[in-house]
Specification:
CATH class of the largest domain: Alpha Beta
Structural class: alpha+beta
CATH topology of the largest domain: Conserved hypothetical protein from pyrococcus furiosus pfu- 392566-001, ParB domain
Oligomer: single chain
Distance between the termini: 49 Å
Number of domains: 2
Number of helices: 6
Order of helices and strands: EHHEEHEHHHEEEE
Strand order of the largest sheet: 1-4-2-3
CATH architecture of the largest domain: Alpha-Beta Complex
Helix content: 25-40%
Amino acid sequence: MFEVKYKTQYIDINLLKVHPENPRLIKDVPFQKLCESIKENPEYFETRPIICDINYVIWAGNQRYRAGKEIGLIKVPAVILDLPEKKLREIMVRDNVQNGEWDFDLLSSHFEIPELEMFGVDMASFGVFEEKETVNHQMVECPKCKNVFGTKGNFKKNTPLSPTEPSL
């Protein structure tokens, strides 16, 4: 049975310290997307709190911390762990590893491409996209599978959107 030993608490952001050997960095547009994500959906931040040691050094969530500072948060969700350094280092790496892969067909049947990009999904991982203009619609074509994607999540093999479909 899984036993919860640690509890998320809100900590003054100024007490926290960036880990000097943090192996992950988010810059530019992806960093701005992270900031927007935290502003627009603070519940997500609560589900992925910062993990720090008893000295308030951040082992997981350095970029979430930076984003919190950037958007002016005073307190951030954090879990304080009193663990050996080896275990903390493992947590640091596990927090930054992205496992698995997307089922693009399933994902695209529920979301529009601009939404996915806003959520931070790397559309390049599905192939390099070229924008195509039709009379009233913006289209995106995947060069790998030749699927044409409309602005409203229509994913049809080389078929443009219907003329009644709204475009962005």
